[in-house]
Amino acid sequence: MSRGSFLSAARAVSWRNIHIWVTNPVLLVPGLLFPLFFFTAFAGGLSRIDSVPGFDYDAGYTTFVYGFVLLQASTFGGVFSAFSVARDFESGFSRRLMLAATNRGGIVAGYWIAALVRAATNIAVVTLVALVAGLEIHGNGIDLIGLYTLALLMNAFALLFGTGVAMRLRTMQAGPAIQTPAFLLLFLAPVWVPYDLLTGWVQAAASVNPVTLMLEAGRGFLAGDPTRVLPAFSVVALLVAVSLLWARGGLRSAERVA
Amino acid sequence: MNQVLLLARRSVTRTLRQPAMVVPSLIFPLLLLSINSSGLDSATRLPGFPADSYFQFALAIPFVQGALFSANSAGTNIASDIESGFLNRLSLTPLRRVSLMLGQLTGILALGLIQALTFVVVGLVFGDGIEAGPGGVVVLVLLSLTISLAFGAIGAFVALRAGNGEAVQGAFPLFFAVLFLSSMYLPRNLIDIGWFHTVATWNPVSYMLEGIRSLLLAGWDGEALALGFGCAGAVAAVAVTAASAALRTRMVRT
C-alpha cells in the first residue's frame, strides 16, 4: 500500500476521466451549458429584482447571481463526475480497476482530481461570460481566494457524496439519487434574492440549509464585505469530512462485491 | 386510418406505461413552481408587476416546461423505435409520413393532457383560480396541447435526424435554454437588460407563456391568445413538417 500505488491509481483514473470528458461532447457540453443558462436567465431576465425594496447588495445583480452560479457550476462539476463513477461500475470497468489497483483510495482520489478539473473549467467559462456581462468584483485577492476555495470545497463535497452513492448502487440509475439532493440543496437557498426577501417554505428551508451560509459568504467575498466566513468554512469542511467517510464506506461496499 | 389509430393507441399506451416519463414531467415543473413562487414572491412588489402573487404569475411555466419534457419523451420513444428496427418495419406499410408522425406523437398529446389538467387543478387549489373562468380552462388546455405537439415534434425531428436516444438527451439542455431566454421569470416590460429583452421578444416561447398567463391573470385577451396559439401552431407546423421530411430521409436510407 505504498504512496506510489496511490498516486499511480489516482493519476490513471483522473487521466482516463478527463480524457473521456474532453473528447465526448455529450458529457462536456451539458456541464458547461447548464450554469450558463442559469446565469443568463437570472442575470438577464431578473435584473430588475434589485429594485425591490429591501434588496441591498452594492455589487449589482449580475454579481449577486454570479455568487450562486459559481457555486452551482462547481457543485455540478462534482455531481457529473460522480455519474462517471456509476458509469464505470455499470460498464464493468471499475471491477477490473479494483482488481488492478493495490491502493483503492487512489481510485476515489482520481475521480476527485477529475471533478476538480471539471469544476475549474466550468468556473472559468462562467466567470468569463459573467465578466463580459458586467460582473463587478469589489473584493480583493484574499477575498477571491476565499470565494474559489469555498466553491472547490463544494465540488469536493458533491463528488464524494455522489461517489458514495454510485459505489453503493453501482448503476447509472443512481443518477437521480446523486443529482436530486445537490439540486435541492442549491435551490432551497437564497438563489434570486437575499434571505430576508424569501417567503414561505423556501425561507424555512433556507434557514437550515448549509448552502445559505456558503452563498452569503461567497457574495460577501465578491462585494468586498466578507460575512459569515467562519461558519461557512466550518460547515463546508464538516460536509467534506462526512462525505469522505460516506465515500469510503461506498468504496468498502464496492470492494466486497469486486 | 385504422393503422394511424393503431399507431396512436400504441403511442399512448407506451408513453403512459412508463412512470419514468410521466412522473418527472409532473413532479419537476411543480417542484420548480413551488420553489420559484416562494423564492421570487418579492418580485410582486415591483411597480407594474401584473399579479399579487408570484405563484399565480409563475403558474404558466409548468405548462411549457411540461411540454419540454414531452420533447424529450417523444424523441426518446422514436429513437428507441429506430434502434429496435420498428421504424424500418413501418416503412414497408403504405402509411403517409405525416399520419405516421402524428400517430407517433399521440402519446405525447395524452401526456400533455394529463400535465395540463394536473397544473390546472394545482392552480385552482393553491392559486387564485383562472381569471378567464371555465371556458378559459378549455382554451388553456388546448393551448397547452398545441405547445406539447410543437415541442414533441421537435424532439421527434432530433431523434429522426440523429437516430439515437443519446442525441435526444444531449439536445435536452437546448430546449431548456429556449425557456430560460424568454419572459419566464418577469413580464417583458420589466426586463431591463436590452439584449435579453430583444431575445425574449423574438423567442416564441415568450408568447406561449404570455398566452397562458393572459388566461390565468387577465381573463380574455385576444391578442395574447392569438400570439400564443399562432407561435405554438407555427412551431408545431414547422416541426411536424421537418420531422416528416426527416422520416422520409430515414426511410430512404433503409
Would you summarize the structure shown here?
Chain A has 258 residues and is mainly alpha-helical. Chain A has one domain. Chain A has ten helices and no strands.
Largest sheet of chain A: none
Shape of chain B: elongated
What about the largest sheet of chain B?
A: none
Q: What count of domains describes the coordinates of chain A?
A: 1
Order of helices and strands of chain B: HHHHHHHHHHH
Question: How many beta-strand runs of chain A?
Answer: 0
Q: What's the N-to-C terminus distance of chain B?
A: 24 Å
Question: In what range is the share of β-strand residues of chain B?
Answer: under 5%
- Looking at how many chains there are and whether they match, the oligomeric state comes to heterodimer
- Integer average pLDDT of chain B: 87
Termini separation of chain A comes to 18 Å
Number of contiguous helices of chain A: 10
- The structure class of chain A reads mainly alpha
Overall pLDDT confidence of chain A: 90
The succession of helices and strands of chain A, N to C, reads HHHHHHHHHH
Poorly predicted regions of chain B are none
Largest interface, counted with CB-CB under 8 A?
A-B, 36 and 33 residues
Work out the helicity level of chain A: over 70%
